[in-house]
Specification:
Order of helices and strands: EHEHEEHHHHHHHH
Structural class: alpha+beta
Helix content: 40-55%
Number of helices: 10
Strand content: 5-15%
CATH architecture of the largest domain: Up-down Bundle
CATH class of the largest domain: Mainly Alpha
Distance between the termini: 51 Å
Strand order of the largest sheet: 2-1-3-4
């Protein structure tokens, strides 16, 4: 099968940013197709991802336009599945360690990101639900960081870092800039905790990774802030 990759994505999605980082770290050439998540084309749902979510990828098959996907190509969705697929295809990328213990540590870190941190953000952002679960997840992740805290696991970037940094960056902007739909979310108060001494190690770890070329190219914090401001302003206009 050919090594052709097409990424169906929206640049504002932290989940799509995960895939972009993984592709860059693996030095994979790919075609990017921007999907309007508010008005998804019918062919995307019918031929790429029946659930209609981005990111999704097309792998292999003939070289055809992205909006005319071949049935001979593999279609995958869900950012963590796609990222692990890339890691398996390109083991020399180091995205997944070869050592079984280190691999287990990566899976443990990613599991906390996906099951403890990420699910708490939307209820807090939209309705002002308690932020305590978010902080608890961040503390748990910080506790897993090694002493030097350059990377989540081992001495190089892995899927643990890929899974966490884009989502944390978006969350940090929500807090730092006070960009939430619900006043009860009290993002400025949460920012004091996130930027405070109890989570200083985690913040320093993320700040160090945000300047890495693959992450800097995918995670544009200025763009994230503009997107959030527009989203919040639009939602408030329709209240």
């Amino acid at each position: 099968m050919s090594q052709r990759f097409v990424l169906y994505d929206n640049a504002n999605s932290p989940f799509g940013q995960r895939v972009r980082i993984a592709l860059r770290e693996a030095n994979v050439e790919y075609t990017s197709f921007e999907v309007d998540t508010a008005n998804k084309p019918a062919w995307f749902v019918e031929k790429i991802n029946p659930i209609g979510k981005v990111p999704a990828i097309l792998y292999g098959g003939p070289d055809v336009p992205p909006d005319q996907p071949s049935p001979d190509s593999v279609k995958l969705a869900e950012s963590h599945i796609i990222a692990e697929f890339i890691a398996d295809l390109y083991p020399d990328s180091g995205l997944m360690p070869r050592d079984p213990v280190q691999r287990a540590h990566v899976h443990r870190f990613v599991d906390i990101v996906n099951t403890k941190f990420t699910p708490e953000i939307i209820p807090w952002f939209v309705t002002g639900a308690s932020w305590q679960g978010i902080v608890d997840a961040l503390v748990a992740l910080q506790d897993l960081l090694p002493d030097d805290a350059a990377f989540a696991v081992g001495g190089s970037l892995t899927l643990a870092d890929v899974a966490f940094v884009p989502l944390y960056s978006m969350f940090w902007i929500m807090c730092e800039k006070g960009l939430c739909l619900a006043e009860a979310a009290r993002p400025r108060d949460v920012a004091e905790i996130v930027n405070g001494p109890e989570l200083a190690k985690l913040k320093a770890y993320v700040d160090g990774l945000l300047v890495r070329p693959s992450i800097k190219a995918a995670v544009d914090q200025e763009r994230q802030e503009k997107y959030l401001r527009k989203f919040v302003a639009g939602a408030h206009r329709h209240d």
